[in-house]
């Protein structure tokens, strides 16, 4: 431990602590913009500068380590003056349409400008770029808002190790760009959307599909069905100021009903179908010498990553569609028939913690008999905007339940939202099926937790099953490289593109740099998900009565011919760059 | 073939005998050497053809005992191509291929100096025959440039002849690393790249660092516009730098060196590669150098032309193959440099001084210069000065001596206005400081800096606001774009300056410039941003009245800012010759032949065609 003085307050911190962290410990807030803990620690923006006695020039507090005996001043007139100039300069090259900006109210730059009382822009002049890339179905890049903090670059390069975006050009002409300055749609971007989560301003955001959904809701001929992914219920509340990870399932369902959806269903039910299909596909491959390891396929960013980077390994991927796609197909077939709704009139809207799902839903093959599985995908953020647009007092809402006949899903489906969850859910079913009994030990703790790669060997019916769970695309690449090199002897692999899984997806509420640095957002949301599982009365997909009924009435059995028609898909090599 | 210490000594003795006429004015042998400058300047004005022609004529005429030799930069670039005849010490300037015949016939065969090729004094126009008598060389002291213009840089034996590798041998056989550092510390040598950090101390930091792998790097990314000191050293004496790097390797415990040199210096790169190859052949790079257990090798890394890569940490990033952006310091390269290993990084001129210090001793070196700045400094003298070129003077020489005695003063009868030292990162020095003895501290005190050694002289035809804009223009386009103050701030400063020059400036702009300048200096990440506002700060300090004239009176006294200038015809001088009218592309001039003409200010586009066309100097 070392002691230093910050603004005359003595602080004791561990060696290796930065001045910024030390200051926060003493409840002194130093402003930051480019800093994103462990993701972008570069000291570029110059907002966090402080004065250290005896040191020439300002110190960059976000990366300068605190030293014993250091005397730091965080808000001297000269520091504040420099910060104001920096803000003034950033704003002078920023599209200041704050009122109509998607990040209005949740913008780190806006907050700082407010805090530092920047009222006039003293140095207005040329702007670097006004280009907008909205070609992809998932992500919009608006260069007029970009402040060159490079948080997105840190995320894409250092966390995900994709490197779809990087700084190009020099000086004032510097921009964040892609290979050949092409749209994200046409380069190696996977649409994981982590860059959006990293962006402090409105330069990166989801492709807004709320208008599309409003049109469906307003169309009297349409029968609109909304489904919500497992990780939505633990994120949505944050958009309304509720504590991180709060499970707002009941309020969410009420709000969706109030928005006017004809039916409010749970994607978790779709997830139970995914488990039925995927677990049985695995058993089939495992016992009959099929292609191993089998890899999960419910994450569309991961699928796009595999198609672009490992086209020769695509036969490892399970042929299962992702839960919301499966569910969409079921709604337009089984549900339509059973409840006598014209399938053509059904519009399925998926609320997802993800922007890649938007891309997935428009993939060519995601339809059955000419009917698209899903008609619109909106993120948690978009749903929150819709709720706010109807002046629904979300926090005050009463709870309600998902509607019949698709209502109750299992704990197994709930944990799909966390890294390791798909694996655990599949194992619960696979183990029962292989062993032929109702196993009581169903908490697979080895696959839980926030580590990027988790490996375990399980004994099921006397056989060793080697499993791996990876989240984050950098970890996915590690596993794929092992497999490509023939060095892997895994049987079952789960991959999620976003670190931590869907609870940290690119469609989740955006947390500012300080929150990310001081709170374990992922763990809080994950805890909430596991508590849903724990409280569930049914925790295995194959025990879900709805599932049983639909298999009995419609699909006959998992992996049947009919199940393949509606619930399975295929993959093909995708060019890394399309230009 | 790998050479031992004895082999090298033998080469040195034999070769020196052959080459002593290059430095010995009292040489009495029969041989003559014709030295042809092959620096970039002279090369571009065809010195290789001159060399070829001289050789051809000598061969045709079967003249023996005369060698034609390519040498590095002789300094007086504005008089190039330069040819020297040794041992006569005859200095021929602006030689053409056609002059070669006469040089051979008259000088070599008949012993008669070619009068028309001699330099003339600026005031009396008297021809000066010998190099040593040229005012340009009189106040110079060549230490870093010792071999430039003396040896053929592509022949290692010539370098060896003039004490080459003597320092390396001494260090390897007689000195411990600590002793080398002590010698450097005692010498008072400071970094010549601009910041002036004590070299001995820097080497010691790297020596003290633990770690198996360390690196030695040479910063040859000379990016200041108008600066060519390092280029000239590399072109004229590449081995001196390589030898010093090897000494550095031995001293700090590194076995690998990199020279980061701009790709825009093709001749320097070419000669460096030849020098490296020759040293490898002689075993002067590689393992067991000179029979000791010292191991050292050097590779060249080419820069792609980004100014910021001259900043040491950006340079390291670039050597590693990354985008050239500075790293935040600390950690300093000495602690964590190339690939996070302890790294010694010095600039070319610093290295060029090392062998001299080791050979002649710290006491000798520290006897030259001022209290705080020892030795000499090489300047690239340019701008509105008669003798444009490369000069090396002892620290403490005044600007007046450099500009007027060595540089020959201001041409075209104009007067001195200011001198910019330190390139775009430096400041403008007005006339009142011409007698300041130059060293690191004194330049800083008057608002400029040593920088790498660019020295641009400006006469009274230069507008100081426009000048600040010119330098800002450079930093704006060379900013790497990493940190906000430099990326956006320099651009905004440029825009304000542009506005002022265009005649749209307001009084508050001057204050805005000051605020911006202050905060860009203080808040930028690296030296580029921290110094970028210097030209503005110094011109505002010494020439604020010019700014105010632009902003308040809407006038530019130097008549450089077109919108603030009126071009007028002096009716007293106008003879009505009509030439101006014909020259005007905007049909702005009216007047009958033989009568006084007039310019319609609304039509005038300030192209100044009429000014050049007027034979009576009636228009200004």
Describe the SSE topology:
The complex is a heterodimer of chains A (579) and B (620).
Chain A lengths: L1 E5 L2 E5 L5 H7 L23 E4 L6 E2 L10 E3 L3 H16 L15 H8 L16 E2 L5 E4 L8 H9 L6 E3 L6 E3 L16 H5 L5 E3 L3 H9 L4 E6 L20 H11 L3 E4 H21 L6 E2 L4 H10 L13 H16 L7 E7 L3 H7 L4 E2 L2 E2 L3 E4 H10 L21 H4 L6 H15 L17 E8 L2 E9 L1 H12 L7 E5 L16 H6 L2 H15 L9 H11 L5 H7 L12
Parallel strand pairs in A: 1-5, 11-12, 11-14, 13-20, 14-17, 19-20
Antiparallel strand pairs in A: 1-2, 3-4, 3-5, 6-7, 7-10, 8-9, 15-16, 18-19
Helix pairs in contact in A: 8-10, 8-14
Chain B lengths: L4 H15 L12 E6 L2 H5 L2 H14 L5 E6 L11 E4 L3 E3 L7 H10 L9 E2 L6 E2 L6 H4 L17 H6 L4 H9 L2 H11 L11 H10 L6 E6 L8 H8 L1 H15 L3 E7 L3 H16 L15 E7 L8 H8 L23 E5 H13 L1 H5 L9 E8 L5 E6 L4 H8 L9 E6 L5 E4 L9 H6 L8 E6 L4 H15 L5 H18 L5 H17 L3 H5 L2 H9 L1 H10 L25 H5 L5 E2 L7 E2 L9 H5 L7
Parallel strand pairs in B: 1-2, 7-8, 7-10, 8-9, 11-15
Antiparallel strand pairs in B: 1-3, 3-4, 5-6, 11-12, 13-14, 13-15, 16-17
Explain what this protein looks like in three dimensions.
The complex is a heterodimer of chains A (579) and B (620). Chain A has 579 residues and is of the alpha/beta class. In chain A, 34% of the residues lie in helices and 14% in strands. The longest helix of chain A is centred in the middle third of the chain and has 21 residues, at 267-287. The model of chain A has no long low-confidence stretch (mean pLDDT 96). Chain B folds into five domains: 31-131, Glutaredoxin (3-Layer(aba) Sandwich), CATH 3.40.30.10; 156-365, 3-Layer(aba) Sandwich (Rossmann fold); 376-459, Ubiquitin-like (UB roll), CATH 3.10.20.600; 464-553, Up-down Bundle (de novo design (two linked rop proteins)); 566-620, Alpha-Beta Plaits (2-Layer Sandwich). In chain B, helix 7 (166-174) packs parallel to helix 11 (238-252) and helix 19 packs antiparallel against helix 20 (507-523). Chain A binds chain B through residues 42-46, 49, 57-58, 60, 63-64, 78, 81-82, 85-86, 89-90, 92-93, 122-123, 125-126, 147-148, 166-167, 169-174, and chain B through 306, 308, 323, 325, 328, 330, 476-492, 495-496, 512, 515-516, 519-520, 522-525, 530.
């Amino acid at each position: 431990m070392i002691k230093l003085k910050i603004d005359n307050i003595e602080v004791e911190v561990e060696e290796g602590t930065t001045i910024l962290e030390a200051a926060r410990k003493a409840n002194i807030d130093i402003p930051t913009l480019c800093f994103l803990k462990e993701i972008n620690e570069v000291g570029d923006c110059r907002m966090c500068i402080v004065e250290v006695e005896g040191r020439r020039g300002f110190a960059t507090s976000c990366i300068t380590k605190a030293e014993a005996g250091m005397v730091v001043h965080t808000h001297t007139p000269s520091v504040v003056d420099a910060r104001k100039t920096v803000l003034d300069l950033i704003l002078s090259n920023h599209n200041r349409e704050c009122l109509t900006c998607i990040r209005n109210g949740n913008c780190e730059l806006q907050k700082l400008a407010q805090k530092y009382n920047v009222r006039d822009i003293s140095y207005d002049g040329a702007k670097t770029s006004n280009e907008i890339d909205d070609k992809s179905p998932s992500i919009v890049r608006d260069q007029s808002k970009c402040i060159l903090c490079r948080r997105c670059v840190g995320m894409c390069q250092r966390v995900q190790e994709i490197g779809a975006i990087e700084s190009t050009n020099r000086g004032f002409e510097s921009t964040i760009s892609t290979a050949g300055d092409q749209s994200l749609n046409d380069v190696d971007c996977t649409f994981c959307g982590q860059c959006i989560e990293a962006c402090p301003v409105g330069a990166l955001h989801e492709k807004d599909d709320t208008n599309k959904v409003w049109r469906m809701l307003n169309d009297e001929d349409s029968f609109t069905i909304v489904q919500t992914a497992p990780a939505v219920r633990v994120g949505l509340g944050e958009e309304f100021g509720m504590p991180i990870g709060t499970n707002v399932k009941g309020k969410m369902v009420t709000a969706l009903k109030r928005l006017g959806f004809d039916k409010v269903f749970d994607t978790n039910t779709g997830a139970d179908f995914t488990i039925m299909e995927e677990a049985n596909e695995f058993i089939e491959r495992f016992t009959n010498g099929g292609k191993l390891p089998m890899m999960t396929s419910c994450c569309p960013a991961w699928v796009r990553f595999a198609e672009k980077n490992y086209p020769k390994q695509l036969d490892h991927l399970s042929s299962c569609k992702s839960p919301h796609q499966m569910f969409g197909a079921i709604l337009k077939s089984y549900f339509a028939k059973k409840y006598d709704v014209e399938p053509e009139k059904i519009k399925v809207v998926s609320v997802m913690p993800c922007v890649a799902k938007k891309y997935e839903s428009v993939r060519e093959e995601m339809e059955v008999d000419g009917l698209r599985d899903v008609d619109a995908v909106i993120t948690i953020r978009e749903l929150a905007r819709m709720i706010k647009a109807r002046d629904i007092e979300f926090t005050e809402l009463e709870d309600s339940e998902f509607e019949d006949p698709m209502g109750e899903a299992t704990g197994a489906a709930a944990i799909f939202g966390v890294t390791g969850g798909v694996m655990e859910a599949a194992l619960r079913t696979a183990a029962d099926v292989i062993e032929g009994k109702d196993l009581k030990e169903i908490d697979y703790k080895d696959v839980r937790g926030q580590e990027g790669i988790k490996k375990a060997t399980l004994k099921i019916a006397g056989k060793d099953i080697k499993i791996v769970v990876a989240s984050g695309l950098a970890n996915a690449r590690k596993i794929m490289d092992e497999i490509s090199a023939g060095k892997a002897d895994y049987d079952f692999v789960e991959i999620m593109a976003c670190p931590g899984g869907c609870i940290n997806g690119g469609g989740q509420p955006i947390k500012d740099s300080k929150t990310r640095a001081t709170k374990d957002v992922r763990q809080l949301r994950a805890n909430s998900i596991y508590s849903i599982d724990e409280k569930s009365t049914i925790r295995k997909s194959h025990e879900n009565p709805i599932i049983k009924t639909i298999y009995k009435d419609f699909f006959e059995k998992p992996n049947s011919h009919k199940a393949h028609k509606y619930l399975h898909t295929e993959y093909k090599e995708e060019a890394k760059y399309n230009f | 073939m790998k050479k031992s210490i004895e082999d090298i000594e033998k080469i040195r003795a034999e070769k020196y005998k052959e080459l002593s006429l290059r430095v010995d004015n009292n040489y009495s042998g029969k041989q003559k050497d014709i030295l042809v400058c092959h620096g970039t300047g002279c090369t571009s004005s065809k010195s290789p053809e001159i060399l070829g022609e001289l050789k051809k004529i000598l061969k045709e005429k079967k003249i023996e005992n005369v060698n034609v030799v390519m040498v590095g930069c002789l300094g007086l670039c504005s008089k190039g191509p330069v040819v020297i005849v040794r041992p006569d010490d005859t200095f021929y300037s602006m030689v053409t291929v056609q002059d070669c015949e006469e040089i051979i016939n008259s000088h070599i065969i008949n012993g008669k100096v070619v009068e028309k090729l001699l330099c003339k004094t600026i005031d009396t126009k008297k021809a000066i025959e010998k190099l040593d008598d040229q005012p340009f060389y009189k106040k110079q002291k060549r230490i870093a440039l010792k071999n430039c213009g003396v040896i053929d840089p592509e022949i290692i034996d010539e370098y060896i002849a003039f004490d080459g590798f003597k320092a390396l041998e001494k260090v390897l056989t007689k000195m411990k690393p600590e002793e080398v550092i002590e010698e450097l510390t005692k010498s008072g040598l400071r970094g010549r790249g601009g910041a002036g950090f004590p070299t001995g101390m820097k080497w010691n930091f790297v020596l003290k660092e633990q770690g198996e792998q360390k690196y030695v790097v040479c910063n040859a990314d000379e990016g200041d516009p108008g600066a060519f000191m390092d280029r000239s050293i590399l072109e004229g004496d590449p081995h001196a730098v390589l030898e010093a790097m090897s000494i550095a390797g031995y001293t700090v415990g590194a076995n690998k060196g990199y020279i980061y040199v701009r790709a825009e210096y093709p001749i320097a790169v070419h000669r460096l590669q030849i020098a490296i190859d020759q040293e490898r052949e002689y075993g002067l790079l590689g393992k067991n150098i000179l029979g000791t257990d010292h191991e050292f090798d050097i590779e060249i890394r080419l820069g792609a032309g980004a100014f910021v890569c001259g900043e040491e940490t950006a340079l390291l990033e670039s050597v590693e193959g990354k985008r050239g952006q500075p790293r935040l310091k600390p950690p300093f390269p000495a602690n964590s440099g190339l690939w996070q290993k302890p790294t010694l990084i010095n600039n070319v001129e610093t290295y060029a001084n090392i062998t001299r210090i080791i050979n002649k001793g710290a006491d000798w070196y520290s006897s030259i210069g001022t209290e705080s700045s020892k030795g000499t400094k090489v300047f690239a003298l340019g701008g509105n000065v008669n003798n444009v070129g490369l000069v090396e003077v002892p620290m403490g020489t005044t600007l007046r001596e450099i500009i007027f005695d060595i540089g020959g003063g201001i041409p075209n009868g104009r007067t001195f206005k200011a001198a910019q030292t330190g390139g775009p990162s430096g400041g403008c020095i007005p006339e009142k400081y011409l007698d300041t003895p130059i060293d690191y501290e004194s330049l800083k005190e008057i608002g400029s800096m040593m920088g790498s050694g660019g020295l641009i002289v400006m006469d009274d035809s230069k507008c100081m606001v426009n000048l600040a804009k010119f330098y800002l223009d450079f930093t704006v386009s060379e900013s790497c774009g990493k940190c906000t103050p430099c990326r956006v701030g320099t651009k905004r400063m440029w825009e304000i300056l542009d506005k002022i020059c265009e005649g749209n400036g307001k009084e508050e702009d001057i204050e805005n410039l000051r605020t911006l300048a202050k905060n860009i200096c203080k808040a930028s990440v690296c030296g580029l941003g921290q110094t970028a506002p210097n030209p503005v700060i110094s011109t505002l300090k010494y020439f604020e009245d010019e700014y105010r004239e632009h902003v308040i009176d809407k006038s530019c006294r130097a008549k450089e800012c077109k919108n603030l200038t009126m071009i007028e015809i002096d009716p007293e001088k106008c003879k009505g010759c009509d030439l101006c009218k014909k020259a005007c592309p905007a049909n702005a001039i009216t007047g009958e032949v033989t009568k006084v003409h007039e310019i319609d200010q609304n039509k005038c586009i300030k192209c100044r065609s009429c000014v050049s066309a007027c034979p009576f100097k009636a228009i200004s």
